[in-house]
Amino acid sequence: MTSKPINQILALAETLCRERGVRLTEQRKAVLRLLCASDKPVSAYELLDQMRGVVKNPAPPTVYRALDFLLEQGLVHKLESLHAYVGCTHPDHPHASQFLICDDCGKVTEVEDASVAESLKAAGTAIGFRAKRPIVEVLGTCERCTAKRAGRDDVDCIASTVNPSEQET
Fold first, then answer.
1. Which residues are annotated as a binding site for Zn(2+)?
2. Where does Zn(2+) bind (predicted)?
3. What is the chain's pLDDT, residue by residue, as a tens digit (169 residues)?
């Protein structure tokens, strides 16, 4: 899902893990590499199938442990509505993400808008609910698929990150 080169992502992941005093093992790195190489969210069992070509005799618990570690370190996200995982586009800082998921092509765009997370936390607090992870998944149609439906085929479908505070007004 990320637009950064895989080697750059892996190097950043290794640096972050080293700074945090945790190990990015070869199996964890293999799972992260596969997630970042995919242009769509990947389920744990799809990862297991892909791991068969990379690691000798991978087992479901191994993949799930790797995913748990990567989630804990903020290197990947789990899309609950899809029961699938994507690489984080900015793992170098904690954040609450929103995901725009195309129903047609499966493209996922990670959006980082702190005001959305704060609004959800405030709404929860108002009714006595303590939000742990204010994650939002929005299903819809990406620009490329919308253009295809309109008869245009001149828009590239590339997974991306959007930070509203960095957009021009």
1. 102, 105, 142, 145
2. 102, 105, 142, 145
3. 555 788 899 999 999 999 999 999 999 999 999 999 998 999 999 999 999 878 788 889 999 999 999 999 999 999 999 999 999 988 888 888 899 999 999 999 999 888 998 999 999 999 999 988 888 999 999 999 999 988 866 555 544 444 444 444 3
Residue spans of beta strands (DSSP E) within the chain = 76-79, 84-87, 98-102, 108-111, 136-140, 161-162
Q: Domain holding 66: CATH number?
A: 1.10.10.10
Within-domain flag for 93: no
The domain containing residue 106 runs over which residues? 98-166
Last residue of a domain, one of 53, 68, 87: 87
Q: Are residues 162 and 127 in the same domain?
A: yes
**How many structural domains does the chain have?**
2
Rounded to an integer, what distance in angstroms lies between the CA atom of residue 121 and that of residue 75?
23
Tokens of 102: 């195309």
Place of tokens 């808008």: 113
Binding residues: 102, 105, 142, 145
